[in-house]
Amino acid sequence: MEPVLKIENLKTSFMTSNGEVQAVRGVSFSVEKGEILGIVGESGSGKSVTSMSILQLLADTARIKDGRILFDGEDLTKVSKKKMREIRGEKISMIFQDPMSSLNPLITAGKQVEEMIKEHHPNKSKAELKQEVLELFEKVRIPEPEKRYRSYPHEFSGGMRQRVMIAMALANKPELLIADEPTTALDVTIQDQILRQLRELEKEYGTSIIFITHDLGVVAELCDRVVVMYGGLVMEEALIEDIFEKPSHPYTMGLLASIPDLEQDKSEKLMPIAGSPPDMTNPPKGCPFAPRCPYARNICAQELPEFVEVGDRHKSRCFLLYEEAPADENNPFRK
Predict the structure, then answer these.
(1) Rounded to an integer, what distance in angstroms lies between the CA atom of residue 120 and that of residue 87?
(2) What is the DSSP string of 23-47?
(3) Which residue, among 102, 48, 13, has the nearest Cα to 211 in the 3D structure?
(4) How would DSSP label each residue in 46-112?
(5) Residues 277, 251, 317, 53: is their CA dihedral positive or negative?
(6) Are 319 and 287 in contact (CB under 8 A)?
(7) What is the pTM of this model?
(8) Residue 190: count of CB within 10 angstroms of its CB
(9) Nearest-angstrom CA–CA distance, 282 and 298
(10) What are the distances in angstroms from CA 167 to CA 156, 176, 327?
């Protein structure tokens, strides 16, 4: 079966007064039907730019310089603006990080969700539109749907506003839902409710989901597979259990080491990744993580490693996994 989405060698840059910012430098991955794919990485790793490239929602200074974005077999980098507007909201929807800046404060929540349906189904009556919105509000567990239909965004809590955004994203039963750090601003209880809801909706509708986050703990709860990004590149890709049981890139290992563990001693400090992300106006020619990697060799700064197949649907971009790499105390994968 063909994947719902297939990205091949995507390169997206921003043209600024300081030069070209190479935000995404050759990213490839796919999303299967009904799959929840997590994209993980620090700020500036290229996660959000990748998602904005899919939806063609990039700033005027941005350019997709190379690659293909195949959705249902059609290359989105080559479709017209009119066709892209038809796809957006109907076949591909997005939930943004901050619902307050995404919702119009002057229009009631119900009307905003109605507009999303009406945009793609202009012949539906007012009664039909309202009924669909009320059903969506019930689906995403917004209490008192009739009352909330007439409420303005400022009358909702942060968690409820995010539920309105989910209702809006699901209004036309899209094939693909992109969720860009949708739980970052929420407390852990509401975050857990939103994650459970996304999983339930994926099962009910069969919608494929791309879940973008910097938090591997969140990914563990929700996703089937994960792509780890750094410096505008994919560093590692694996099934979710393999990422936690057999991480095969030093960057992934660093992210895992920085996750709080409820069972660890309170006096034990978390292990942050030392150093800073690379300057993407002048990206390194070698592995972008090399300056921060405790296992880096000379070659890591000189050349970009190819992917090594680590296991079933598991690959990693690291010289330490090469067959000729020495097996010693400075190689965590081949001791």
Answers:
(1) 9
(2) EEEEEEEEE-TT-EEEEE--TTSSH
(3) 48
(4) SHHHHHHHHHT---TTEEEEEEEEEETTEEGGGS-HHHHHHHBTTTEEEE-S-HHHHS-TTS-HHHH
(5) negative
(6) yes
(7) 0.91
(8) 17
(9) 19
(10) 14, 14, 52
Spatial contact of 234 and 227, defined as CB atoms under 8 Å apart: yes
Cα 220 to Cα 39: distance, rounded to the nearest angstrom: 12
**CB-count burial class (<10 Å; 0-12, 13-18, 19+) for 144:** exposed
Residue whose C-alpha is closest to residue 218's, from 260, 177, 254: 260
For residue 104, what are its two tokens? 């119009």
Q: Along the chain (335 residues), what's the average pLDDT of each consecutive run of 10 residues?
A: 93 95 97 94 93 93 96 93 90 83 90 92 92 92 93 91 89 91 78 84 87 89 95 97 95 87 64 88 95 94 96 95 87 80
* pLDDT per position as a tens digit, 262-313: 566 666 666 778 889 999 999 999 999 999 999 999 999 999 999 999 999 9
Those residues whose C-beta lies under 8 Å from the C-beta of residue 274, and which sit 6 or more positions away, are: 292
DSSP annotation of 181 reads S
CB atoms within 10 A of CB 197: 16
Spell out the residues 6+ positions from residue 45 whose beta carbon is closer than 8 angstroms to its own.
229, 230, 231, 232, 277
